[in-house]
Amino acid sequence: MVQEQYTRAGLPGLLQQDVSAKAGILVLRRTGILRMHHLSTSHCSVAQVELRTGLVYLVSAYFQYSENIQSHISHLERVLEALKGEPVIIAVDTNTHSSLWPSGEEQLRGRGRAAEERREALEAFILAKGFIVYNSEGEAETFCSPNGASNIDATLSTRSVKIGDWRVHEDVSTSDHRLITFAVLGTRLGGGAKCGRGACEVSGPRCGLGGIQIGPLAARGEHILSSDALWGIRSKKTVKGRNQNLYPISK
């Protein structure tokens, strides 16, 4: 899943609304994937993908900083209503700091009323939907530029899908948003899985937090890439001609 992707390179397998899109889904290998055109916009790309662990819906979203965040949240709410009860993974460049994932105190306070309202709206949405937030302590910041580093790219999911091995990779891409990878370990219709902030540990044939069935390849899972993140190709900079070799989805 990519945001602010490099759209003029004619990349094969890039699913997006149009050439000016700010969010897309890049398919790096043959897999069963269906783009949901009726749910997608220039800032939100939605697709159904068939993994070894089952069907899952991917949502790549870009919350443009110059726009009211509520318009982007409202569209995501419509997407989630259409996919109610289905396993959904969201990779989003929020352009927002939040106390729901690692952020410095200086990033959460004293940034002005507009930034505070943006953060409050985002957090209210995430908490109301009961999403699992996978951004975790101990990983590098998702965004790094000469002006500083912070976490503004978030990986979220409904409670009917289990993600593990969530990582931020430094020095893999020339983008100022770092590559994020994770593994889809299992899915279950109907939700109800329990998990706290960050990815929980999995052992045995079943996840102990919520009873999500895990497929026979649980140790590897189905690896997904995300860059803006979630996310290595971006409009400002790009890795030339090597993206498939650099970022295999699974080994």
From TrEMBL:
Residues 57-180 form the Endonuclease/exonuclease/phosphatase domain. GO terms for molecular function: catalytic activity. This is Endonuclease/exonuclease/phosphatase domain-containing protein. It comes from Leptosia nina. The lineage of its organism: Eukaryota, Metazoa, Ecdysozoa, Arthropoda, Hexapoda.
